[in-house]
Write a structure and sequence with these properties.
- This protein is α+β, with helices and mostly antiparallel strands and 242 residues long.
- It folds into 2 domains: 82 residues, Pseudouridine synthase (2-Layer Sandwich), CATH 3.30.2350.10; 141 residues, Pseudouridine synthase.
- It has 6 helices and 12 strands.
- The longest helix has 12 residues.
């Protein structure tokens, strides 16, 4: 049987798992392994109808919560809606970020000029969005410079971290939609991505990982962590190879 996912924590109310990069949260195919929610249904069985509490983009790896019943789902969603959940990501971006710490505050809205329907951008009339970043380290390969960041989104807009990083001139490595050439994204969805294009992307997925969530539940603080995947961590050590 195919491995469904790595379980970080489980009790009678909710399940915390590591969503691998490349797996969608909701079904897009009939294959029962094709989405996180369908895999959760296989794992939990017919008596439990899991509900996703937070969602990650297909290529973003990391922590995802699923409630096991309606009451837990309602209470957990209230925490997210009231911004009572602290989320921490790690990301690798192009270039050496010059500041050790910064708060990016830029509203987001639909990118009307894009050929991609789901693409957003910094938009003066958009919804408020804030992302806080800390520089963890910088490294270089023979051809490029990179920075490893710790990232905390203070709002939960679609593609927020990816857009904000591109906005300050440091797009996330491997980002096909916000990396500067959206044809890479179109090539992916149209199944025409060439080896040359893959080489330009450097990594198989974009280098964004949901590493930690923190919130209060049943009178105590709950903190859940998960490590980045090997392709991500190996790239962060690329400077040792040059």
């Amino acid at each position: 049987m195919q491995q469904l996912f790595d379980i970080i924590y489980e009790d009678r109310e909710f399940l915390v798992v590591h969503k691998p990069a490349g797996l969608v949260c909701h079904p897009t195919k009939t294959d029962e392994y094709s989405s996180l929610i369908s895999r959760a249904r296989l794992y939990l069985g017919q008596d439990i109808r899991p509900q996703l509490i937070n969602r990650l983009d297909r290529e973003t790896s990391g922590i995802t919560l699923l409630a096991k019943n309606d009451d837990s789902a309602r209470r957990l969603r209230q925490l997210w809606e009231r911004r009572l959940v602290s989320k921490e990501y790690i990301a690798v971006v192009h270039g050496h970020v010059p500041l050790a710490h910064q708060l990016i505050s830029a509203p987001l809205g639909k990118d009307e000029s894009s050929r991609v329907a789901i693409k957003d951008c910094v938009h003066l009339e958009g919804a408020p969005a804030q992302t806080e970043i800390w520089l963890e380290s910088t490294f270089s390969t023979q051809s490029s410079n990179f920075s490893l960041l710790r990232v905390q989104p203070h709002t939960g807009r679609k593609h927020q971290i990816r857009i904000h990083m591109a906005h300050i001139g440091h797009p996330i490595v491997g980002d096909k939609l916000y990396g500067g050439d959206e044809d890479l994204y179109l090539a992916l969805v149209e199944n025409r991505l060439t080896e040359q294009q893959r080489a330009r992307l450097i990594l198989p997925y974009h280098a964004l990982h949901a590493a930690q969530v923190r919130f209060h539940w049943a009178g105590q603080e709950r903190v859940f962590h998960t490590q980045a995947e090997p392709w991500f961590t190996a790239f962060c050590r690329a400077d040792a190879l040059t």
